[in-house]
Amino acid sequence: MPGRETKGFGGSGVSSQVGLIVIALLLGLVVPLGVVAYLAAKDPVPRSCSTGVATSTHFEGAVAWSTPGVLWFADGDLSRARRLVDYAPVRPATPASPSPTASATPAPSVAASVSPGASTGPSPSASPTPWPVFEAAAVSADRHMVAFVVSNPPDEPGMISLRVISPLDPPGTTPQEPGSWPWVRDGGVRSDVSILPDGHMLFTVAHKWDPPETDPVLVGVAEASSTVKLDEADPQHKFLQTDHSVWPELKGYKLPPALPKLESRVIAPGGRVAGSLTHFVKTLLVDRALHEIVDGRAGSPDTSVVCAGGDPLETVAFAPDGHTVAVVAGGNTGLLDLNGGHALATLLRGRVLAWRA
Question: Does any domain span residue 80?
Fold first, then answer.
């Protein structure tokens, strides 16, 4: 009987199936990588604010900053800072613990020893009443006056207050108060104060009106010469419409440019602008918020992204050099040079409120 040819699964048939399997596996690896590369090219993620050459923390000028309950001031030397105002609750005395030596853990800045641990925040057993918060501050040109806005001060709970003190005053001096108003907690309003060339103080605060109004913001002018007093005050919308051009204390004053619109914005004397924006990145593989530091010019809508991070970043003041900006991140203030791809470097513990050249 002639032999019967039997066809099995070997030979060229097996090779073909193996080849198809290999091709499928390769496609399974290459296609996702190609999608990621395409999406990254379409919407590139900015560089991290922690990468690059660290920004110099060389300090010049006069600065005011806050830790919980305490307002600090330093002029030219952070290691010689002094407490201007201390509203922190008095705590029971506890035995002092030795501080780590300089060789133990590298200190982030020269100011690390300025803000004591006793003022870093409320203890778990503290009163549920909100702590005082220093919302804003300004330093006069001669550095002899600091104006500040504080919410929920211990002597006026539930209020927001404009106050004035001099770094030349003896320790423990009570600040003077041109005015205070009912405070809107968590109103989303960023308080502000500036000292004009003639010494008047222009301020913006969150205000709880009675009866209620649609504008929760109060703008006013106060003076701090021989007499500290409130001169003018109105809702913000009225100030923007007419008051800024008719109040005699604001002769020659010009409203800051509306552009660029940023979540936090500071303007250097030369017109350079730094601010923060939150950018939401959503792709097949990523869904998160990026907090960006951007650079621009006053009056122009155009900005460029300097760097970004996963945690909130807030620009608060320009350094005297005009190209380094103070950025609050995680309760500390760092410096970021906007030129040359620098990285954020820690300056001090706490929140910088004002910086005067």
Answer: no
Report yes or no on 92 lying in a domain.
no
Name the nearest CA neighbour of 222 among 245, 195, 187: 195
- Per the domain annotation, does 237 fall within a domain? yes
- Are 56 and 339 within 8 A, CB to CB? no
Q: How far apart are CA 327 and CA 334, in angstroms?
A: 5
Give the integer Cα–Cα distance in Å for 271 and 264. 16
Q: Which residues of 71-91 are buried (b: 16+ CB within 10 A; e: fewer)?
A: bbbbbeebeebebbbebbeee
312 in any annotated domain: no
CA pair distance 264, 72, nearest whole angstrom? 22
The residue written with tokens 């706490």 in the block is 350
Tell me the H-state helices in 161-248: 236-238, 244-246
93-144, pLDDT tens digit by residue? 554 444 333 333 333 443 443 443 334 444 444 445 678 999 999 999 999 9
Contact yes or no for 210/183 (Cβ under 8 A) = no
Measured distance CA(68)–CA(206) in Å, rounded: 20
DSSP three-state, residue 74 = strand
Per the structure, the count of domains in the chain is 1
pLDDT tens column, 10-28: 445 555 655 555 555 555 5
**Segments forming the whole domain that contains residue 242:** 129-255
Contact status, residue 321 vs residue 337, Cβ threshold 8 Å: no
Residue given tokens 């008047």 in the structure block? 200
Q: pTM above the 0.85 mark? A: no
- Cα–Cα distance, 120 to 193 (Å, whole number): 25
